[in-house]
Specification:
Length: 103
Amino acid sequence: MYAIIETGGKQYRVEEGRSLKVELLEAEAGAAVDLDKVLMVKTVDGVKLGAPYIEGAKISCEVLEHGRDKKVVVFRKRRRKDFQKKQGHRQHFTRIMVKSIQA
């Protein structure tokens, strides 16, 4: 059984017992979080599709940790113009563990 959810403007495939890294959520480490933007659920019986979301479906998760990703370096250069610009960015994330899928 798996589901496709939307959080932080991105879509993720989730399964029970798996952990994944999503955009930063406003919850403390160890707290329980319910994600209700479920787009699709695949079960043994078949597939449920939402339009755009499935009503009454939710994913129960536990927040494991917060952190920052690897640095992404943005380097711009215009040749023969003596122009160089280097900038770095580290994106914040939340690692969650999927406890149950209810659909």
